[in-house]
Amino acid sequence: MSFRLAAYAVCVDAQGEQVLMARHVSAQGVSTWTLPGGRVEHGEDPFDTVVREVAEETGCEAVVERLLGVDSRMIPAAERLLPGGTDHQNVGVFYRVRILGGRLRPQENDTIAESVWTPLTDVPGLRRSSLVDIGLALVRTLPPTGHTPPVPVGGLVRH
Fold first, then answer.
1. Three-class DSSP category at 159
2. Which of 34, 89, 107, 142 is a plausible cystine mate for 129, CB 3.0–4.6 Å?
3. Terminal alpha carbon distance of the chain
């Protein structure tokens, strides 16, 4: 089994109408929308990870406003996008962040092709990572325990 600890940014504009999303392009050229964020490096605090990842992936400076919650999910090998992989556990730490400045741009020398403010009403029609639905559920409900019920994965939603 593989394991990943990651931190993700949920950044909703002041009017509550748009969310900052990043378009990831796989090695096979498949685009999937996701939240800015990524792997926590060895010895790194997830709080610092989310700020670093927003800067790397979007070109913007962010500040963490609050911890939203932690999602832990098992992804069976048969549901993984990479053929021949093993079962995988992803633990995601989700933070609400606010953008302080900068200019949106693609990630240099990596897989994020663009970052854009996306109307929340458009999100259901996008091919997206399950992380988007988890993050939006957390920011919408602000569960006191930081735990959201499992988000169903299907249709346009991908692990």
1. coil
2. 34
3. 16
